[in-house]
Amino acid sequence: MTFDLFDNLDDPAPANPAPEPLADGAVVLRGLARTNAEALLADVQAVIAAAPLRHMVTPGGLTMSVAMTNCGDAGWVSDARGYRYDRTDPLSGQPWPAMPPRLRALAEEAAALAGFAGFAPDACLVNRYVPGTRLSLHQDRDERDFGAPIVSVSLGLPAVFLFGGMRRAERPQRVRLAHGDVVVWGGPSRLAFHGVAPLADGDHPLLGRARINLTFRKAL
Ligand code: MD6
Ligand code: FE
């Protein structure tokens, strides 16, 4: 019996770039972001240093348990006025930090592998989950153009991604996402309901008790 230094209980499967189908227009790219995860996380830390993670408030007045920030030309924001994309960070009044080229390149590669060549993301939402944090079923529909897919990158603790259908009532698939896994949904799946089950406790070698999810969008 041998042990591979790079395979541990948090992400046991080898990277496999062959798309794993979830639904028409939706795939999982297992481990695509794993080999350069440390460099990707350094880029994310630089974004967080410039635009700190914060808990946004929903239009209904609830504070979200996921901590968020953004990079790129536009950032997703929520407040009493609603959900929208804004070119400036409401905390600073300054533009969001630029999208780091390594993050953009990963999103473009993932989209191309999923059949969406030419994806040009202008927004990257950074989400930080700690154990117990969940994201209820929702559609991503604040973007102007649903012709572009969503690219979602998972780093740190594993999560159970809930991937449903076009109606909220449809029972979602439960997909385990490990460190480095990437999900792409577009085309006929672009408006699929999705969410994240409550994060289980754990201790990730790079991120400790946290999961970071990056979602790349063409927002403007
Ligand atoms: C995920 N996240 O964390 C999927 N959508 O795997 C999302 O679908 C998402 O984290 C909109 C806003 C924030 C999110
Ligand atoms: Fe979403």
Automatic annotation (TrEMBL):
SUPFAM superfamilies: Clavaminate synthase-like (SSF51197)
Pfam families associated with the record: 2OG-FeII_Oxy_2 (PF13532)
Biological process annotations from GO: methylation; oxidative RNA demethylation
Domain Fe2OG dioxygenase stretches: 120-220
Positions contributing to 2-oxoglutarate binding: N127, R128, Y129, R211, I212, N213, L214, T215, F216, R217
Source superkingdom: Bacteria
List of residues binding Fe cation: H138, D140, H194
Keyword Oxidoreductase: yes
Region (Disordered): 1-21
UniProt-listed Enzyme Commission number(s): 1.14.11.33
One CC-aspect GO term: cytoplasm
Residues reported in the UniProt entry to bind substrate: W76, Y83, R84, Y85, D142, R168
Keyword hit for Iron: yes
InterPro entries: Alkb, AlkB-like, AlkB-like_sf, Oxoglu/Fe-dep_dioxygenase_dom
Cofactor note: Binds 1 Fe(2+) ion per subunit.
PANTHER family with a match to the protein in the record: ALKYLATED DNA REPAIR PROTEIN ALKB-RELATED, NUCLEIC ACID DIOXYGENASE ALKBH1
NCBIfam families assigned to the protein according to its UniProt record, in alphabetical order: PRK15401.1
UniProt-recorded name of the protein: DNA oxidative demethylase AlkB
